[in-house]
Amino acid sequence: MPNFSYQVFATVANQKTFAAAAKSLRVTPSAISHSINAFEKELGFPLFLRNRTGVRLTENGKQILPLVQEIIAAETKLNEEAAQLSGLNKGHVRIGGFSSVFINWLPEIINSFKDAHPQVGISVQQGSFNDVVEQVRLGNLDVGFATLPIDPGLEVLPLYRDRIYCVTPLDFKPQNGHTITKADIKHEEFILQQIDYDRETKKALDTYDVSVNSIQYSIDDASIIAMVESGLGLGILPELALEKLSGDVKRYPFAQDFYREICLVAHHKPRQTPSTKAFIQTVQAYIQKRY
Fold first, then answer.
1. Side-chain-facing half-sphere of 114: CA atoms under 13 Å
2. Which range is the signal sequence, renumbered to this chain (predicted)?
């Protein structure tokens, strides 16, 4: 079976429609259909269940998808290794992450990486922590920025302990003048992104007895700042997210320290391509220099 069949199968599984897969691979939908039909005939069983809205994997399709992704990853690694042995420096790194990393870290990291590896392509995809980890696990991303804890099965490289702050209007002042206690926020409402209401953010709010009924949700970090500035509630944001956000607000640490642990996730070293390994080294060097 030609390698293109593997790529088509994995892309359709990810995109959920033949049309979207065709657009991603820059081929016609009929080419996608022909490839899948030939692959299914070769295997002896159907890979997808078709319907009017798209396709979904059969149980057999779900079982072979990880194997096909391993083959694709191995072939990519082989091609990159061969290119390096030929004196070339080619490849492609697919990076996933969340907004504050994209805003504050990634531009400098990518520029540094491109200076050292100008022939290596870069693509980026923003998503929630869980989305990024899942896309790395599925092989749709080579490396991703997320937060601990991470389920086993991937290589996890801790990067930075990002302190979590309470964001307040200018006229708000804690009773002790320095840190937020339970008494300070007993009757306050909080504004946060819904995807942030987990892990350490949830732990902080639960520790301070903030009920779900006292939480409003916003679209992004900038809108949180704007709503806090307008006196609509208090925000809760990590230090990295606050670095390039401006507004007439103050930030105070909680009396009990809370941190989110930012990490890098990738497949284990045997499955990493040379370009992925080089990117990981660039990230580690950047963090070491910055912090």
1. 9
2. none
- Residues 6 or more apart in contact with residue 108 via CB below 8 angstroms: 286
pLDDT of 85 reads 59
State the CATH architecture for 160-261. Answer: 3-Layer(aba) Sandwich (3.40)
Element of type H or E holding 76:
helix 59-85
**Cα–Cα distance for residue pair 265/56, rounded to 1 Å:** 27
Please give the CATH topology (third level) of the domain spanning 1-70. Arc Repressor Mutant, subunit A (1.10.10)
The domain spans of the chain are 1-70, 160-261
Give which of 48, 12, 14 is closest to 27, Cα–Cα.
12
| Helices 274-290 & 59-85 angle (0-180, nearest 10) | 80
Q: Give the strand pairing for 92-97 and 48-51.
A: unpaired
Per-10-residue mean pLDDT of the chain, 291 residues long, equals 79 91 86 89 92 91 91 81 62 92 95 91 92 90 94 91 95 95 92 78 88 83 93 94 92 94 92 90 94 89
**Cα dist from 212 to 25, 31, 89, 119, 184, whole Å:** 44, 50, 52, 49, 17
* pLDDT for residue 100: 92
pLDDT of residue 161: 95
SS3 state of residue 3: helix
Distance CA 113, CA 160 (A): 20
